[in-house]
């Protein structure tokens, strides 16, 4: 039976680094954050619903006008919630369709909001990638050319790491080098495979 493993972590924690490594080992990975950004452009039903909610300006030359939408919902929490209530089910539907096409014993889902949206309840196990706040901030500053303040603002809106740890089955502490992070990822993969063998 296919088992779903959730991978999550706050901004700059290294979840994509871990997910890409696992994908490189041949496991199927679904990247929810990537598909959320893609589907607003390619899912016709979703496009229609977004236009109905936000108006024609949500698209410019048929392309999702991310900046305009972000500005519009920035200070309107209700509107943001309504937008999310349209986008999240579309991603969930796309994900279920993807799952039905997989036949690997383990499949992985990378999602920033795994615990926030309660998606961990559908997972066999969950992996939290985490690192100290200042380390994460500096990694994102370097990656996205953002200021300390800009990254901190995003970070403070996310669920605190100690809360996430309560939900996670495995925690990868990514304070050290990437090589160390990938070694820890291998250890988690080994544990998952062992667990699977014990069950069979
Ligand atoms: P986001 O949620 O912001 O997309 P993320 O959790 O997916 O972030 P990554 O993109 O994997 O995090 O990592 C953030 C940045 O830090 C990347 O540029 C990545 O290459 C780098 N990075 C990740 N782990 C390490 C590490 N152990 N040492 C140095 N740099 C790292």
Give me the secondary-structure topology.
Layout: E1 3-8, H1 15-24, E2 29-31, H2 32-42, H3 44-54, E3 59-60, E4 63-64, H4 66-74, H5 77-100, E5 106-110, E6 125-130, H6 133-144, H7 148-157, H8 161-167, E7 170-173, H9 178-199
Parallel strand pairs: 1-5, 1-6, 2-5, 6-7
Antiparallel strand pairs: 3-4
Helix pairs in contact: 1-9, 2-3, 2-5, 3-5, 6-7
The structure holds adenosine-5'-triphosphate (ATP).
The site of adenosine-5'-triphosphate has 16 residues, from helix 1, helix 6 and helix 9.
Structural summary, described in words:
The protein has 200 residues and is an alpha/beta fold. The chain contains 9 helices and 7 strands; from the N terminus they run βαβααββααββαααβα. It has helices spanning 15-24, 32-42, 44-54, 66-74, 77-100, 133-144, 148-157, 161-167, 178-199; strands at residues 3-8, 29-31, 59-60, 63-64, 106-110, 125-130, 170-173. The strands form 2 sheets. A 5-stranded parallel beta sheet has the order 2-5-1-6-7, with helices on both faces. Bound molecules: adenosine-5'-triphosphate. Adenosine-5'-triphosphate binds at residues 9, 11-17, 112, 139-140, 143, 174, 177-178, 181.
């Amino acid at each position: 039976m296919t088992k779903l493993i959730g991978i999550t972590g706050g901004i700059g924690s290294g979840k994509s680094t871990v997910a890409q490594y696992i994908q490189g080992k041949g496991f199927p990975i679904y990247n929810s954050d990537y598909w959320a950004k893609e589907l607003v452009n390619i899912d016709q039903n979703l496009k229609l619903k977004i236009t109905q909610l936000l108006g024609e300006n949500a698209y410019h030359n048929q392309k999702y006008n991310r900046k305009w939408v972000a500005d519009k919902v920035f200070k309107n929490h209700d509107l943001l919630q309504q937008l999310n209530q349209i986008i999240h089910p579309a991603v969930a539907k796309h994900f279920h369709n993807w799952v039905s096409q997989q036949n690997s014993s383990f499949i992985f889902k990378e999602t920033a909001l795994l615990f926030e949206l309660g998606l961990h309840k559908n997972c066999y196990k969950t992996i939290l990638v985490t690192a100290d706040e200042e380390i994460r901030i500096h990694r994102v500053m370097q990656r996205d050319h953002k200021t300390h303040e800009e990254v901190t603002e995003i970070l403070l809106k996310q669920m605190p790491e100690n809360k996430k740890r309560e939900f996670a089955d495995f925690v990868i502490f990514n304070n050290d080098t990437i090589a160390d992070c990938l070694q820890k990822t291998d250890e988690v993969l080994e544990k998952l495979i062992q667990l699977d063998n014990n069950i069979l």
